[in-house]
């Protein structure tokens, strides 16, 4: 009998049989989807921080979270597990690199293409980085070349023509790709398409922050891409900017980011959601706001 399920050659998530049984018996699709999303993040993020990724409103996310708590699959208020330590990339001796260049035709072609793309001759440590991206990070040659082109275009956009990325920058980005599972041409193409779309949206975010039409510097771009990934439109970022300036009398990126992260964890992403849920509590003893009818009566009294 032919297999029905397809098993892609990628790192997966492990769903235990008891957990699967509980989810199937409950029949709550949102709870199952939220649980799979938590597993994909290895339990290192709180459920409410996934609202942007799942594109759910706060009520839907809280309902799914409550179901998982009732099933005993997540704990209320449980601290997330610490992230896995960063593993250092291996180093390769000069002799091994020379042997690979002599005997490994795909690797030799890759180094020649990277030479041409970066416009310079790669050093032995540079070649070792390319080798570690293939052997240790598990990226095939075609994906590594797409990675190099992506890094080169990003540096040119940030710093102008003639600037090229270092192999250390490419290595850092390459291991990030590996952690994200970007290890095929199709996955790389999808990632680059999403990246280009987010880059195209950056001018709208810069205008929302009253920064005009200039290009963001690297640290600013990191914040902007992060806010897009959380699911905030430019209008919500503008609201966070207003609150930041009101408090700090200037745009402080870290303070603005803290506001947006708090909204993100609460599942608030649109201006309507934020204004409906993120209101300050009334001061004790403060007079209640007049009703619409009372306000109209007061307005009319002025003309009596």
Summarize the structure.
With 304 residues, the chain is mostly helical.
Tell me the layout of helices and strands.
Blueprint: H1 17-26, H2 29-40, H3 51-54, H4 58-70, H5 94-103, H6 105-118, H7 124-135, H8 141-159, H9 167-180, H10 185-208, H11 218-230, H12 234-248, H13 253-265, H14 271-277, H15 292-301
Explain what you see.
This protein has 304 residues and is an all-alpha fold. The longest helix has 24 residues. The protein is flat.
| Integer-rounded radius of gyration | 26 Å
Number of domains: 3
Low-confidence runs: 1-11, 77-86, 289-304
Oligomeric state of this protein? single chain
What keyword list fits this structure?
about 0% strand; mainly alpha; disordered C terminus; disordered N terminus
